Amino acid sequence: MLSRILVSLGITIAISAALALALALMGYSFLKMFLLIFVLHFIAFGVLNYFTGVMTSIKMRRIQTEQLKLLSFQTAEVVCAACKESAIVSITLGEEESFECEKCGAKNNVVITAEAVLQTNPVSNLDPDLLLKDKIKLDVQQ
Ligand SMILES: [Zn+2]
């Protein structure tokens, strides 16, 4: 890690020195140009890092959206309305689905219906003492 930083810093210094030398030959101050280019390097790398980070986060968000799409994608086993052959079809909630029967070739639409069922308590939640008390209360009231 430290050697990578030193190599990177060495390259930065070498490029800065080379450019400053070229500018010094055109009459500019070598030291001023060297310092200016050296500092500009860090600003340029900072801006580059910032945009790389932004691009990475945009990509990550896109991947997460794709994953959420895949999560809403499910399959179900249905039977052909014409020949009763069963088929596995993909189901996406909120979208109309259809499939062609592999046996008879009939085109089927998939209809999703919703129904309600009563919630039930697990047997372990039933306290025999409380049940007995309720029974006694009912008996007393009668
Ligand atoms: Zn069929």
Fold and architecture overview:
This protein is α+β, with helices and mostly antiparallel strands. It has helices at residues 2-25, 30-71, 128-141, and strands at 73-79, 86-92, 97-100, 107-110. It folds into two domains: 2-70, no CATH class; 73-110, no CATH class. It is built from three helices and four strands. The strands form two sheets. It has a two-stranded antiparallel ribbon with strand order 1-2. The protein has a two-stranded antiparallel ribbon with strand order 3-4. A hairpin with a 6-residue loop joins strand 1 and strand 2. It is elongated, with a radius of gyration of 36 Å. The N and C termini lie far apart (85 Å). The structure holds zinc ion. Zinc ion (ZN) binds at residues 80, 82-83, 85, 101, 103-104, 106.
Quick structural summary:
The chain has 142 residues and is of the alpha+beta class. The chain has helices spanning 2-25, 30-71, 128-141, and strands at 73-79, 86-92, 97-100, 107-110. The chain folds into two domains: 2-70, no CATH class; 73-110, no CATH class.
Descriptive keywords:
alpha+beta; 2 domains; binds zinc ion; two-stranded antiparallel ribbon; 4 strands; 142 residues; two-stranded antiparallel sheet; 3 helices
Q: Termini distance?
A: 85 Å
Q: What's the average pLDDT?
A: 88
Ions, cofactors and other bound molecules: zinc ion
Strand content: 15-25%
Q: How many individual helices?
A: 3
Number of domains: 2
Structural class: alpha+beta
What is the CA-atom radius of gyration, in angstroms? 36 Å
* Basic shape: elongated
**Number of beta-strand segments:** 4
Oligomer type: single chain
- In the sheet with the most strands, the strands line up as 1-2
Order of helices and strands: HHEEEEH
Return residue spans where pLDDT drops below 50 for at least 5 consecutive residues.
none
The major pleated sheet works out as: 2 strands, antiparallel
The amount of helix comes to 55-70%
